[in-house]
Amino acid sequence: MTQNNVSAVPNIMLIMADQLAPQFTSAYGHPLVKTPHIDALAKRGMRFDAAYCNAPLCAPSRFSFMSGQLVTRIAAYDNASEFPSSIPTFAHYLRSMGYRTCLSGKMHFIGPDQLHGFEERITTDVYPSDFAWTPDWELPDERIDKWYHNMDSVREAGVAATTFQIEYDEEVCFFAKRKLMEYACEKTQPFCMVASFIHPHDPYVARPEWWDLYDQADIDMPAYTLTRDQQDAFSQRLMDGIEASTVAVTEDEIRNARHAYYANTSYFDSKVGDIVRTLDETGQLDNTIIFITADHGDMLGERGLWYKMNFFEHSGRVPLVMAGPNVAKGTVTSPCSLVDILPTMIDIAAQTGHDKPELGQPIDGRSLWPMATGTGEDNGDAIGEYCAEMTGHPVFMIRRGDYKYIHCDGDPAQLYNITNDPAEMTNLADDPTYQTIADNFAAEVVARWNSAAIRTDVIAKQKQRQSVYNAMQHGDLTAWDYNPPRDAAQEYVRNHMDWTVAAAKTRFPPLDK
Questions:
Q1: Which segments constitute the Choline sulfatase enzyme C-terminal domain (predicted)?
Q2: Catalytic positions, please?
Q3: pLDDT, tens digit, for every residue of 71-89?
Q4: Which domain holds residue 44?
C-alpha cells in the first residue's frame, strides 16, 4: 500500500457484473472457472450463499436494487419501464449523509433522469434509455426480433478482438480508476462509487487471452436439461420466446457459449482486481467496504434454458460478497436479495455515529450489516417478481428457509427444496407430504399480491409508454441517452494553467515538499 488515507467513515465501492450466476465462479465453488480476485475478497470477507435478484431482468433488477423496493411497488416492470426521479435511491441517502456518489458504467436507467442521486456519472450507458423495449402483454406470444433474446448468442459464440461490450467495460474500468485516483489526490472522503460492467452478459464473445485460459475439452456441459415437453408451463413460454423450441443448437455451440461465458467471467474478475489494486495504490483499501454482485444470473443451458427471465437458481441467484473494515470472515446461508443493499449501505454510513436519513418511501429490504459483521444468521427471505416479456401474468417467487415457491396465474405452482434439490429437479407442489408447506406459500401469495390488479397496471403502463414512444418517432428527437460532460479545455495541460501545478495536482502519491 502506497499511503494510508483512512477516514472515520468508510468508503463504499460496489462492483457489479451483468448476468453473472455465482455457480459459474470459483468463489462459489466452480472447479474450472477462474475468479481469483473475487475469491480473494470472499476469503477476507463475507460470502452470501443465497442472495437473489428481485427481478431476473436488467432494468427492473437495477431499479429495485437502487431503491430498496420491490418491482411492483415502483412499477419497474420491464426493460423499458421508467425509473421516476421521485423515487429515493441509496445514492440519495448516502449523499445526504455526506458521501460523494459516482456511477461508472451500466445502470439501465429509463427516462430523462440519468443520475438518480449520483453526483457524477462518468460514462454513458450501454443500452437505450427510452421506451422502445416495451413488451405487450395483450400479445404475449408475439416476438419482437429487434430486441428479444434468441439463440444467435449461442450459435455465434466464440472469439473476437473486440466487441461493443469489451469497448464499454474497458471505458468503465478506466474512468472508475481515474476517479479513484482523483479522490485520493483531492483527499475526498467518504465516497460511494458504483462500477457496473456489462460482462459476462451475452453475446458470448471473448478476447483470445481470456478464451485461452480454458481448454475447450474441459468445458462442462449443462448438468440437467429438459425438452420443451418436460418443462413447466412458464419455461415452455420462455423456450418459445428465445426460439429455443424451434432453433436447434449443437453440443459444440453450447460448449462454445459456456467457454466464452467462463472467459468473460474471468475478464470481469480482472476488472475487480484492477479496481481493488487502485484502491490499494491510493491508500483507500483499508477504509473501503467492497461489494461484489450482479443484477441476475444466466441459465447457460441448464434445464435447457438460456439467459435469465425466470426464478430458477442459475437465473435468480446472484453473487454477493462483502469485504472491508469490520466485515467478518465467513459465509451466510440465510436468503437475502438486492433490495437489502440499500439499508446495508445506510448502516455502513451510520456506524460511526452519523444520523440515518429519514426514508422518503418505505423500503422492502433489511440490512445485511449484522450478518456481515458476524452476528449470525437472521433466517430472512428473498422475494422476486417478474412482469416483463414472455409472460402475460406476473410471476412471483418466495425463497425462505429450505424452500422456493413460484407462482404465476394459470400455471401449476412450483415448490422446490433448494437444500436437498439444488438443481430443482423435483417439483413438490403436488406432493401430499408437502401439502401444508405448499398451501401456506399459496396463501401468502394471495395475501401479498393482487395479481389481477398488477396485470391491469402493467398493461396500462405498457400502453402509456407505447403511445409516447410511437409519437417520439416523429419530428425532432431529444434523446435521453446520457452524455457524460467533459470540457477538453480543462483537461491535462492548457495555456491558462501552470503545467507544474497540473502535474502536481494529478500525481499520487504527492511529492514531499
A1: 457-508
A2: 58, 108
A3: 999 999 999 999 999 999 9
A4: 11-383
